[in-house]
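Reader question, answered in our methods column.
A reader sent in the components of a multi-part assembly and asked whether the whole thing could be modeled at once rather than chain by chain. We filled in our standard form and ran it. Here is what they sent:
COMPLEX SIZE: two components
ENTRIES:
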Amino acid sequence: MILVSQDSERSAKRMPQKATIPSIIARDIPQSRFEIAVDAPKCTGCGSCELICSLYHDGVNSPSLSRIHVVRDALSGENSIEICSQCQGPECMQACPVKEAMVVDEKTGARVIVEEECTGCGNCYRACPFNLEGCIIKHRPKEKVYVKCDLCYKREGGPACVEICPQNALSYISHW
Amino acid sequence: MTYGWVGKILRVDLSSGRTEVEDTDKYAEKFIGGRGIAAAIAWNELHPVMDPFMPENRLIFMTGPLTGTLAPASGRTAVCGVAPQAYPTPWFTRSNMGGQWGSELKYAGFDGVIVQGKAQNPVYINVDDGQTEVNDAKDLWGLDTYSTQRMIWNKHGRDAKAACIGPAGERLARIAVILTETESAAGQGGFGAVMGSKNLKAIAVHGTGSVEVARPDELTELCLEMKEEMPTAEHIPIKPSLNPEHVTPYGQRLQNCSHACIVQCPLNHYYKSVPGVDSPTVLSGQLHCIGPVFAGAPKTFYDWNPGFRAGFEAAVLSNKYGINQWELIIGTVPWLRAMKQAGVLTDLDEVEINPDNPDFWFALIKKIAYREGKMGNALSEGGLRAADILGIGKKEASEFWVPYGYPGHWDGRGDRINPIFYPVWIVAAIQLATDTRDPFSSSHGYVAGVSLWSNVLKWDDIYRIAEKVYGSNKAVNLQTPYEYKAQPAIWHQHRSVLKDSLPVCDWAFPRIYGLSGDDHYVKIATSKGTIYGPSFEHRLFTAVTGIDVTQSDLDRTAERIFNLERAIQVRSHGRSRKEDEAVIPYFETTEHFVGPTGKRESLDKRKFIKLMDEYYALRSWSGTTGRPTKEKLVDLGLDDVSREMERLNLA
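And here is the structure of the entire assembly that came back:
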């Protein structure tokens, strides 16, 4: 389900591509266009988002490999979801020392870690201001790389987690 | 077996403190997982017959190939062993629970855990990414189930998942559960007491591994399509048993029980920060099907009214102390009330029997959990044993408990809330006669399916769908009450085995009736063509494991497992046709609800015995002894079982 209206598409086209990037940004980082928005009170903690994420990206079912993370308190019943919000002016990208290791997908504006180029330095992991639990940018010690949500930019139909969520707790929204 | 199963089963001997790791492979092909593998282990290890509290009894926690995958509502675990709840003689049976525990166990590298022996002092088992330790549980013993889980988090981090017992399990109450999260429990069987008898307080698991999937694209497509079909479950007209005005202030909302559940489950509600009546704090937690009835269900048999807050607190207390809610609501409390009405008993050691009074509930639950006084001690043994111990209320107890010790369930008798009617409960009677526990943990499909959907669909639609599913519309036809009933009973017994072995949730599968499409027969469209509801399970199995099976292949595996379970009953517990037919007097009483015939019906013994003849013949079991024939066992690939039965003169 893609919640992009015709209007927002048009306004996106009119907007100059670099206009809103703050001057503190050292790199020329294209704007983000979409993000996965979370409506946490709707989440029932089923974990299907995590499972389809790892299934799509890694071909296995594994919450620890998933780029979306459900934080559950099984006793209080509070669920929340940690996922990259595809920041404008992403600090992870600015911190990355390898130009080819973090790129922006043209179509979605997704901030993408290129695993083949990632040296595993962990600068992005430490730079992300939202990565308090280490669940938004995740370390994979075995492969010595970091991974994060890439909005399933290669996937027909958009992000898999949004498609599977049975409660509409996740939606794929435009930044404009 | 690279896909689905993670390949290892952990064995922990609490007497010696030793742990061993075994291969799942030796069981997987013939017995799938969960209940199936547990039966294979029981056949090998649980003989000669033993008391459930002997250290030699096994407590088997077993997941299946779908656990931990995206397959809908697959995050379940079977719990098996010799169960103390069965009456009068404990026998081998199974229970199962949802939550995240089973998935986490697989991510930690194990398909199952076999616990045997008995620790000298209270311990808990901690499994962390393939590493196992048996730790001292001095500081956990005595705690309720919620506090135990919090303590496990303190020790091993918030990602750890714990299955544990409360005070009831520690005191070997035969109605004690094993619980994870707020209300996911292996409830029937009294396995909490088996855990307590081993001095085992909890099993904590944490894993960062994966479950490999053979065909990720196929699994994804199936799950996405099923997700669109499955929410129709919300249209099943289940009566809300709580007054909605009482509920909304406490934020009633859905919280999933089985990991990966995508169903808009009508049974499952989470309440938050409900002010306590007895407790000075607020309480939160989940209620499933029976939980809401603690607060009473107006205009039903369970019409007590202690108020929502007190009812909720009683439900939470029973979870915290680790007591079987079904036993309390369908058995204990109606029995106590009936005895009071009959003038047999007025109070529980000076607490008046009055379900309208919140204090009665709190006292009852505490007495059972801590075996307080004569009444608490007796009731913690389960209703039928309590009647024996106290020497009172046997006649009243027989109204609420099936003769082998489990409270009624979807049978129109002991269970007086689920709207099942004649002739639907004739299939329930066959299922109950030939099972080892209340079977409606994993075979709601017929009883609830036909009863509830008959309110939504036309009977003609149901007949037409039944023709496709069971081979004849007589399986559900109101005009043919005693014809073609063994067939659907067997069909659902095999589905029950599959659901407990793959595993998937009973309320989610099998998909038969639905609202989508003009013919109301559940189906989904995929790139490989149309798939009908009853085929969902085997398609999920194939997508995950990469093993191409047909439904009849899986049905045959289910039949193998069911026959093995029967062989265990015959060999270890002397089960025969006589024990099966002990349920007849229970069904000869008048049904509770009035069905389409317009009057209350009861079982016709003569016709039912003929049906049972048909059942044994279809199963290739002896009609006189009820034992599986040698030919049947060999045909199912159970040659070793057949030889052993022959050696024991049980063939």
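What stands out: Chain A touches chain B at residues 41, 44-48, 51-52, 54-56, 58-65, 72-77, 79, 160, 163-164, 166-167 (CB under 8 Å). The longest strand of chain A covers residues 34-38.
Send us your own complexes using the same form.
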